[in-house]
Specification:
The protein has 112 residues and is α+β, with helices and mostly antiparallel strands. It has helices spanning 4-10, 55-71, and strands at 19-20, 24-28, 36-42, 78-81, 97-101. A five-stranded antiparallel sheet has the order 1-2-3-5-4, with helices on one face. It binds adenosine monophosphate and zinc ion.
Length: 112
């Protein structure tokens, strides 16, 4: 098993989990882009949102992102992002939701 997020989800790589249920785990991003930056990750290997077909898992991921927002104290607002494949800037090929917040985030897309 070479997938880093499969290894974290299975416990092969010990990581402090901020949320865990039968479908999903959540943990801190190692290179946080904001004061709070948590990754919500399915236990099952799904490469990206493109490949996601399991409705129960889809619901579990979204509800976990909502729960992480609450547990991280992000009531002022935050953002949930998933990068998909090459043009989406996806670096880790295991589906994950970024839960990002803790300060005002500004425009969603930079006009470069
Ligand atoms: P993406 O570009 O959407 O694939 O984002 C991948 C994210 O995973 C990046 O924000 C990385 O900082 C994060 N990341 C990579 N490896 C780890 C790890 N071992 N533990 C926590 N976060 C990680
Ligand atoms: Zn994986």
């Amino acid at each position: 098993m070479t997938c880093i997020f499969c290894q974290i989800a299975s416990g092969k790589i010990a990581t402090d989990l901020l949320y865990s249920d039968e479908h999903v785990v959540a943990f801190q991003d190692i290179r946080p882009q904001a004061p709070k930056h948590v990754l919500v990750v399915p236990r099952a290997h799904v490469a990206s949102l493109w490949e996601l077909e399991d409705r129960e898992l889809a619901g579990a991921l979204l509800l976990a992102a909502a729960e992480v927002g609450r547990s991280q104290g992000l009531g002022a607002g935050y953002r949930v992002i998933t990068n998909i494949r090459k043009h989406g800037g996806q670096e880790v090929p295991h589906l994950h939701l970024h839960v990002v917040g803790g300060h005002p985030l500004g425009p969603m897309l930079q006009q470069d």
